[in-house]
Design goal:
Strand content: 25-35%
Structural class: alpha+beta
Radius of gyration: 20 Å
Number of helices: 2
Number of strands: 8
Order of helices and strands: HEEEEEEHEE
CATH architecture: Sandwich
Largest sheet: 5 strands, antiparallel
């Protein structure tokens, strides 16, 4: 009986340890080194095509700014296609502020650093997450 219980415990431990390894995803580290000042925070969102420009991302983060530089890490990202949007929330109101003509008042950027007139496009900012950790740089 004791051997049976020990065997069952060993099997369950093995099964759980394998399932935890499979759940561990990829780490994406994003650096922005041209924030114009240290006022407010930088907000960043990891988006799928379904969430891009529609609110919260798959993963969202914010950080303090030090000497015009920030680094944010998204952990346990599953393989797939994503885009990152970042903004400097100078007044810390958790949203992008605009001028009367619709132009942004606060700095922003996306993965792949494509800057075009008009709102960011998912196809310009998308990248693929496969089987290794990524380090990305975004410019405001």
């Amino acid at each position: 009986m004791r051997n049976l219980i020990l065997t069952i415990a060993l099997v369950l431990t093995s099964v759980f340890s394998f399932s935890q390894e499979e759940e561990k995803g990829i780490t994406i580290t994003v650096t922005i080194d041209n924030v114009k000042n240290d006022t407010g925070k930088v907000l960043m969102s990891l988006h799928s095509s379904e969430t891009f420009m529609k609110g919260l991302g798959v993963l969202d983060a914010e950080t303090e700014i030090k000497d015009g530089k920030v680094t944010i890490t998204f952990e346990n990202v599953q393989p797939g296609e994503y885009a990152i949007m970042a903004m400097h929330d100078e007044n810390d109101n958790k949203r992008m502020d605009f001028r009367e003509n619709g132009m942004p008042l606060e700095s922003y950027g996306t993965s792949n650093n494509v800057m075009a007139f008009g709102p960011p496009q998912y196809d310009d900012a998308k990248f693929t997450v496969e089987d290794k950790d990524l380090e990305l740089e975004i410019r405001f």
